[in-house]
Amino acid sequence: MEKILINGGIPLHGSIEVSGMKNAALPILMGCLLVEDKCVIENLPEIDDVTLSLKILEAMGLSVRMLGRNTVEIDSTHAVGGSSPIDLVRKMRASYYLLGAELGRFGHAYVGYPGGCDFGVRPIDQHIKGFEALGAEVNVEGGYVEVNAVNGLKANNIFFDVITVGGTMNIILAAVKAKGTTVIENAAREPHIVDLANFLNTCGAKISGAGTDTIKIMGVDRLHGCSYAIIPDMIEAGTYMLAAAATKGRLKITNVIPKHLESISAKLTEMGVEVIDDDESVTVTYVGELNRINVKTMPYPGFPTDMQPQMGVLMCLAEGVSRLSEGVYDNRFRYVEELKRMGALIKVDGRTAVIEGIKRFSPAQIRAVDLRAGAAMVIAALATKGVTEVEDIYHIERGYDDIVGKLRRVGADIRKIDAEEKVAFPVAN
Ligand code: EPU
Q: Does residue 104 contact residue 152 with C-beta atoms inside 8 Å?
């Protein structure tokens, strides 16, 4: 177990290159199961969830060969359905994509119930409803989900009761080779859904409408191999954008699609931060006191829930009282208790946090309670004079490629140490 130590209060300056998007990479890697051929996936982020996904695929008989730090070749010709190891599957929410991918490839799926960050109840009823609409029978028993389409999958119209990213992608995966044209309505519109559809279309699938709330999937008999580069990670980009503002610095964030960052840029601008878009970069500059704002998270193109904890930190550093409402999950404010250790004044009432600006945090020992909460703790520590320790960083390493190295290269005094290493606390500057 390791922890991150940050001697903060230093404005970040320079340029950070964003890696490939975690939440696109994971369904695309699982989607390789559908392609009985070789796929080369580029711009793969080097993060623990990708490593875990590749281990799961290898255990299922796929051949996985790294062709460089960010490129992998996957050959799924000899994949064995229902063979994913439960101990690996349970470590990650995204393993639910095996359900759609195995169902699409073999007509049946047998996968351990997925794990993932704890934001309260995270059901998969909409995934199940979609599989059933395609003619499959679903059983959840003994910690496993079993899906069987004895008579093959048949296209259907599916209307989601809630907008679900995972559900939308899982039905796309299952329906790619189903007979006929499946229509998903009230579909999620996130850029990673477009990326999965683009990957599958490059392999010969016929998917249209991804990025809108109505997606049509015309079933095809088989898919062929391809080379495909994953889109940049908008949440990683957004995290560094907020780090620039929180540390009163200036960062050019490169390898981004500025369109994907619009909701984040708009809120930063409202706070009085300068955001300048270029073709493939955004430059974020702190220009003075941060204004109070209100933010409500929503499915794309709304403000992303995966940026909510990071925004909570920035609101603590603004003038006056801000309101932060969570519109996607029941319980994504567990990080607030950690921020309170640093002096934050936050009251949580149900799905809304009322945040009183305090201008500066004081250093403390804090925990990453989940992935994005961990990123938020790093931002808080970067903005704070003195040494802050962030524990349980395995959450952060699930989704941020070389966060310590990237921040160090823009001036942060940050290092990773063994959790057992003793550090006098607090350390004077
Ligand atoms: N929901 C249902 N039933 C379902 C599916 C979802 O009620 O069958 C509810 C959820 O409980 C939640 C809401 O619908 O309240 C949205 O959930 P969604 O299915 O969209 O989320 P997800 O697929 O489980 C993915 C990302 C999350 C990200 C959300 C929302 C992956 C592996 N995970 O989760 O990413 O927060 O979409 O954008 O892609 C992260 O990266 O830190 C992360 C948590």
A: no
